[in-house]
Prior knowledge:
Blueprint: H1 8-25, H2 29-34, H3 37-44, E1 51-53, E2 70-72, E3 75-79, H4 88-97, H5 107-111, H6 135-151, H7 161-173, E4 178-179, E5 189-191, E6 195-204, E7 225-232, E8 238-245, H8 246-252, E9 254-256, E10 261-263, H9 268-271, E11 277-278, H10 280-289
Parallel strand pairs: 6-7
Antiparallel strand pairs: 1-3, 2-3, 4-5, 5-6, 7-8, 8-11, 9-10
Amino acid sequence: MSDTPARPGELVRTHLGALFAWVETQDPSELDRLLDAEYTRVTFGLAYPFARRVEDLTEAEHRRYWVGVHRVLGVDVRVTNHWYDEHVPDLVAYLAAIGVVPDDLTADEQRWTRPPALPVPAPPTPGVDLTQHAVSELLALQASAIRELRRRGIVRGAGSPLGEAAELVVHRALPGSVLADPATKAYDITDDEWGRIQVKARTVSTPQLPGQRQTSIFKSEGFEHAALVLLDDTTYAVVRAVLLPLDTVRARWRHRPRENGWTLQMNGPTMNHPAAIDITEAVRRASRSLG
């Protein structure tokens, strides 16, 4: 085991090649985000940008970045060396999201994982070809689809159907539960067994992209369980769904002062937490029952 990383910084070094290769081949715009202080603070909890252009480094910053230079998309960058144990959960969540480490490992297991080959993009999912439609037609189609979903009772508002659809299938997956009034902010469902439940849902692609598993903002602690639901971004099929007790949610979420709330990464360590109650099959059955 002598060739495995022993510290968070070595974990970063181990996967830098695969990370930057992903940036170059899958999402070149991610380089700009990794150079941005606010993005890397939110994504990794870092005090300094993940990387800096060599030409932009000040004299004072040189000691905060490793001396090794990486050429990414024609730009010479150096990566910060200010990595500590508290950064590991967010780091491995990010690496899992871009396919550099397996997503179903615990944080400790992911910490010692060597990088596999870069992921091969999945073939496109068969469906309606929208590529020849004008933007105005696409917007009209979206509005029509939401109106029809509202007519069928799947959603109650006029915004994105993701959140409300997730609330409905979790409600149907828990016999005897009751949907809260749409104006209720702290929770979405009440249930005799699980109490007040707040539902958080995200869609994920294949391969998954950074940030896809971050929940929307939790504005309060007025619930007993969070229902965390991951859906395929093209088919809306249920990928995974769990109930997580509030004390576990509190232990894993991160405060966002600007939004006056908290967010949670629905990554492997969260979804596979010992306290998580797996309701995937029940939610899948409920989802199929929508027709």
